[in-house]
Predict the structure of Orotidine 5'-phosphate decarboxylase.
Amino acid sequence: MELTQLVEQIRRKKSFLCIGLDVDLKKLPTHLLETKDPVFEFNKAIIDATHHLAVALKPNIAFYEALGIKGWESLKKTIDYINEHYPELFTIADAKRGDIGNTSTMYAKAFFEDLNFDSVTVAPYMGRDSVEPFLAFKDRHTILLSLTSNPGAFDFQTKEYAAKPLYQNVLETSKNYVNSENLMYVIGATKAEYLKDIRAIVPESFLLVPGVGAQGGSLKEVCKYGLNDNVGLLVNSSRGILYASKGKDFAEKAAEKAKDLQLQMASFL
Amino acid sequence: MELTQLVEQIRRKKSFLCIGLDVDLKKLPTHLLETKDPVFEFNKAIIDATHHLAVALKPNIAFYEALGIKGWESLKKTIDYINEHYPELFTIADAKRGDIGNTSTMYAKAFFEDLNFDSVTVAPYMGRDSVEPFLAFKDRHTILLSLTSNPGAFDFQTKEYAAKPLYQNVLETSKNYVNSENLMYVIGATKAEYLKDIRAIVPESFLLVPGVGAQGGSLKEVCKYGLNDNVGLLVNSSRGILYASKGKDFAEKAAEKAKDLQLQMASFL
């Protein structure tokens, strides 16, 4: 997908909501467990109920891998369903991949070619030749971890490094990678106070912001410093939407939660 | 697997060779392409021919993911074959995973429970709560990226950070993680000159060393500073062994290359 299509969709829907599909069998409505593929049935219902409120969907790959081959099949059916029925939705494989050059090329093929995602999240630790193989795919996007939403972010990312915090070095260095126009960044909502510095380094990039909801980040704070002329934000919510109800009304309740967030977002646009 | 079993195996075989199963369909012997599962048939033949020369096997997960569900099936068959026929071999899922706590738990389940690997490689960028969920599994091992073998390692890992290179901070910080006795580290063979400093920080840890062979690292240099009282090294070779021949003799030629490396290793023990 081209970025202009994503921006157009955000303006039309008045939403920059990304829904994280972190599907945990233990949390699914019990009536779905009797179906042949509960994970896919759950995703399908959530997607059908929320597609007009969200602009992006983000399956968290770990939750599918933990189910083995069956999980990989549910993932494939989910992404195929999105691409067939809602091709306007921006899809994110939340996979946190990254390895030496020829191996990163294989991961890029897995997510961009075999599964046909619009984007994938990538860890920066291994540097340039671990990221550029992803960037080489036209109209596909690489979302690099910069400042994550979890407590462990303080172990390395925020510490001083060459007179700057490491996460700022990741932003500055990656701007010089070949095809860096295909880069976006993960910035945790729980670190909203850092967004002013971040926007000084990457004023135009899209930021994928997890951590609103279960992790405690504030949408208002994120918007205050994070919005740019193209909106430039995708704010993710997973558990807060997916598990709003464990009954037969789970999709309806999920849509209500998504609508709440969409309305808040509309007020900032 | 307990570490004492790994060390005993190394002493008995006079080898600390790890064979990387980076299986690329384009490089397989052509006669295998007619079989139902060429990737598994290739792995099976390589494993049967080399199991007495190596102590560890390391499927590179990207190469399987790039083949979609079929690749995931080949991976499952490969690990099951190893665990059934050669349970003494230490198995490494080279996956470079790492995410916020509940997601890392899912990745750990995928590799330690569903696939039953002895160990998995993990990226440190997200810090403590992205690593500890892996460490929580008894007699399973987490191999943390510290100083990788690729050129991109110089982007962040070797740069000064809190008055030390970042990779040293990763070693020092991770030593304090809960269950850090289950930690090993990836140290690229192309960075052998750094091993003296590394051994000063983690004298007892096992190091997984890729980069001998195709990437140009020297086994002699690695051994000079890397060996400890328990050997403490697993040296990986992938392409140099797997693709020694494209003919029907591919497994025999792979065993010859493995034997060459094993004999060199024996001379350092």
Remarks:
- DSSP finds twelve helices and ten strands in chain B.
- Chain B touches chain A through 57 residues (CB under 8 Å).
